[in-house]
From TrEMBL:
GO cellular component, one term: plasma membrane
Naturally occurring in which organism (per UniProt): Mycobacterium simulans
Annotated stretches, region: Disordered: 376-397
Entry keyword RNA-binding: no
Protein location: Cell membrane
Domain Type VII secretion system protein EccE, first and last residues per copy: 173-267
Family: Belongs to the EccE family.
Superkingdom per UniProt: Bacteria
The name this protein goes by in its record: ESX-5 secretion system protein EccE5
Keyword terms of this UniProt record: Cell membrane, Membrane, Transmembrane, Transmembrane helix
Amino acid sequence: MTLRQRQRWTAIRLLAVLLLGMWGLTVARVLPTKVAGSTIVLTALALLVPLHEGRSLAHWGVLTIAFIARHGRSVPRLPAPTDILVASGTAGIRCDGRTLLTAIELRPALAITDIGVGIACTTNAVPVRLLAQCMHQYGIDLSIDVVSIGQEVSLASCYGPGCAQTVGQRTLVGRRRTWLLLRLDVLANLPGITARGPSGTAAPRVLAAACHRVAQRLRENGIDAHALTAKQLDEMTDLFLEHSPLDQVRERWSTMRTADAYVKTFMIEPNQLTNTHLDRWWASPATSTAVTVRLVNANDGPRVGGLVRYVTAECPCRKYPCPNPGALLSSVSIQRRLFEATLPGGDRSLRADIPTLLASDLDSLSIATEQRVRHQQSAASVATARHRRHRRQALQK
């Protein structure tokens, strides 16, 4: 939860307590003692006691009114980015509210993905511990999203039938790309920005320079990373919205709807944010899958949360239930806010209240930067594949 969200809900709770006290005094003077006591207790339950998903009845009322108010409205377009030139190079910067955004694409080298019984392993991964170290840049605090988008291999492609025969009935993510989204809260970092010049011109330069420093740090650790220009940032945004154009997507109570697809976003239970679960979420039969791992700054240190977004041809509530109920949290009435949280935006992408965990508790977590295949394969198939690989290596020698 962001600082603004905590302040808002703290004010709402204080107001609820004040109204409850005034209501109790009024009722106690007018009604008999037993009736007044019952009325006060029921009012307290409605205003203060958490119910479903940890929200009180009053909280659900606020969410319902907000949902009705925005129901049927399209999602506003993202602002166009601009190129900012600094000494280390050019970076595309998007200004969305008080938050600036830039992006880095991770381009993994060719590597073998070893497919075993129920899991796949690859050496192309970025550790969360390394990203947490990149969040502080010379007096500037950044938030970082690791976003991976993948799609199934189309059977119409030349290699589709072969992949389908190899994988069997399980899902194969055939196209997968990964980016880092770097965000700079201008107001929260105002002292460090104004020390470098007027905030209007210094803030984009500060973020562009930080973007190239992060990319350089990743390359020093063997990860091929490149800052995106404004044109490349636009192309990345188009890929994010390939199956859910902003002018067509509409919010429903438990999903987002487009002309020919459904978009469902789940929050990740942070205690279940493990390498195994990251692989498992890619195995859901969806047209497109997007996994976001978010690192944000807090008073007790960097914290990590995440989102998983599925695009399906049929309603996910009926055809595709939650792929991992213990690790993915399905929320209603806030699907638009969760959908916006997966976009490469500024303020709008930070409004969702996502559960988080301290990054120090997830030191072993690594996020794959290439496609991973997760399916059930027999021991004989694994042995055969290993024998063929060793034979190819022997022939090459």
